[in-house]
Amino acid sequence: MGKPDVTLNLAEVLAGPAPYATLVLADGIELHHQPASTEPVNTVAAALADRSGYDGSGIRGVVHLTGSSGDTDHAVGMTDGDFMSLYELLASICNVMGVRLWRKIRPADLVTIRYTDLATGDLFWFGGTSHRLMQVKDFPAGQENKLSPDAKVMVFDDGEEFNWYPDSSFHDRADRAPSGYWQRTGNQLLPADV
């Protein structure tokens, strides 16, 4: 996932008594599974298929999520954008099911950070410049944010101020993610040389 230059031979990784099956979840995102599997139902994969219009799929066992296979036995990895879309969908499914979703992330990979992950002292990157968060405060009296009534203002040590949205998120490099992100997700940051 997230590696569009890698090719996976589906016939090898999903060998079995019957041909594997491919579900197109979205443009550039496919789920491949072995319908003849006798393994238990993969509830996360089944929920992912359900959300993509394959109701009652009852997917069992191991699945492989890839980029497009173009009706061949070779599927490429997903683009970073497709991977982020899939990961956010998987995270929402796992949150509802009470399943912890985590992965090992390279320092340059993009991660989805919630504004609520930020704490006093954390760095917030904007326009290639870091700003150290000093506080999150209410909007001044008589002034409101029309995008979100719950929005607040982040105040930084350099005097900069940016809006803070409790139900929103932003993307940044993994090596810039605050500790609140790692605590919330359980993901692990890989060393730079991996």
| Average of per-residue pLDDT values | 87
What overall geometry do the principal axes of the alpha carbons give? elongated
Largest sheet: 4 strands, antiparallel
The beta-strand count equals: 13
Which class best fits the helix and strand makeup? alpha+beta
Count of DSSP helices? 4
How are the strands ordered across the major sheet? Answer: 8-9-10-11
Strand content: 25-35%
Q: What is the helix/strand order? A: EHEEHEEHEEEEEEEHE
Terminal residue distance: 16 Å
- Low-pLDDT stretches are none
Radius of gyration over alpha carbons? Answer: 20 Å
Helix amount: 10-25%
Description:
The protein is of the alpha+beta class. It has 4 helices and 13 strands. Strand 8 (123-126) and strand 9 form a beta hairpin. The two termini are 16 Å apart.
Which features characterize this protein?
194 residues; 4-stranded antiparallel β-sheet; 3-stranded antiparallel β-sheet; 29% strand; elongated
